[in-house]
What we know:
The protein has five helices and ten strands, in the order βαββαββααβββββα. It is α+β, with helices and mostly antiparallel strands.
Amino acid sequence: MRIYPLLQTVEDRDNADEVEERGPFKCISAKAWLGVGYYFWDRFEKIAHWWGGTCYPGGYMICQAEINIHKDDYLDLAGNTEQMERFSEFCSAVESRLHKELTLSQIIEYLKKNNKFPYKAIRAHSIDCGEGDCFFRMRFIEKKSSYINLNPALQICVIDRAIVSGYHIIYPEDYVQVV
Length: 179
């Protein structure tokens, strides 16, 4: 399977050459939603801009890359209903056994540390992730709250950096000339 384009939003520190040379950049924060990894937005550039404006008010860059990955090496919690069902059952069983609520990140990191996480990347839909004109929500029925989001905030956390290729800046345009 080939996923393209993936977009990583990073702080603009006036270091375009370094970003293209050293990117993508790994997130090791304890607040990382899907555990430690290289975080990208799936396809929607408006979402990458929203994230940049939210997290980096002093300025940001958006870098594009692609990954080549077989479907069996990819945990798709946003589109593969069979994987979603199996993983949710597993998470529930772990929480039940431990008698406590865990975060998705905690479960993923536990599995990785115990060599029980066979995936090279994870894809997830960030529900309730922001508001604004970058999200295109359309109601199913008038005067009802139910809607579809036609450009959702889909995140991809790449665990194995080796599957990432073609990393380069696409925004701001001043840096694109550096490529």
